[in-house]
Amino acid sequence: MFSSLTSTLRSTIIPSPIWLPRMFSMTSVAEAGYKMKSHSGAKKRWRSLGSGSSFKRGKANHQHLNVTKPPARKNRLSTTAYSTPAQTHKLKKLLLPYGSN
After folding, report:
1. Is 55 exposed, middle or buried (0-12, 13-18, 19+ CB in 10 A)?
2. Which residue has the higher pLDDT, 54 or 1?
3. pTM, whole model, 2 decimals?
4. How far apart (Å, rounded) are the C-alpha atoms in residues 85 and 53?
5. 94: nearest Cα among 44, 60, 29
6. Concatenated DSSP letters of the chain
7. 95: confidence class by pLDDT, cuts 50, 70, 90
8. What is the pLDDT of residue 86?
């Protein structure tokens, strides 16, 4: 009795999967009328290298309040940081479609 009661309640509360709306788009991007967007934060911070297989960026905390920082730290902050393979994989997705420029 309990199983038949729950099945009737389930059928009245939860609609069948046939009537649920689709959770994906059937149109292509060109038909949809919008463009792919680059990630603004990554676009401002990272530059791709000539081969397009890696990225570089400057390090933060080197613009102001440098009097209290030791010279070794200032030298370390002035160097260029390069992306790891995992970061490169993510950056190519974030900077699509312009990540290889």
Report:
1. buried
2. 54
3. 0.59
4. 9
5. 44
6. -HHHHHHHHHHHHSPPTTSSPPSS--S-HHHHT------HHHHHHEEE-TTSS-EEEEPSS-SS--TTS-HHHHHHHHSEEE--HHHHHHHHHHTTTSTT-
7. confident
8. 95
Tokens for 33, please give them: 């009328």
Q: Which two tokens stand for residue 76?
A: 């370390």
Q: Which amino acid is at 45?
A: R
**Backbone CA torsion sign across 19, 25, 28, 29:** positive
Given the structure tokens 């292509």, which residue do they identify?
28
Angle at 47 between CA 46 and CA 49, to 5 degrees: 135
Encoded tokens for 72: 């070794």
